[in-house]
Amino acid sequence: MTIDEYAAWAATIAKVDEHPSNERLSYLGLGLAGEAGEVADHIKKLLRDDWLDKAGLVDELGDVIYYWACLCAATGQQPSELLEASAKKIKRRLSEAASR
């Protein structure tokens, strides 16, 4: 399954349509923030306990991707195109930093 196929599938689960309501967008955005917080909590526990629940972290990363993919669909963006744009931006920033 490609990331674009996953996003299309996730959008059906989350009932995302072409014109999502503010409530639906808010739900997805808060879901993403909540799952990112769960990822952060795993990292915090790594620092505190010097032990990483890798399976738990991976599980939470999957939840982050779900909400991210749904938001991509809700905004009419193809995840693969967003990833390409992000890579370009990061490469540009690295190039700019190297030239300083």
TrEMBL record:
SUPFAM superfamilies: all-alpha NTP pyrophosphatases (SSF101386). InterPro entries: MazG-like_dom (IPR004518), MazG-related_GP37 (IPR011379). Residues 30-93 form the NTP pyrophosphohydrolase MazG-like domain. Pfam families: MazG. This is Pyrophosphatase. The lineage of its organism: Bacteria, Pseudomonadati, Pseudomonadota, Alphaproteobacteria, Hyphomicrobiales.
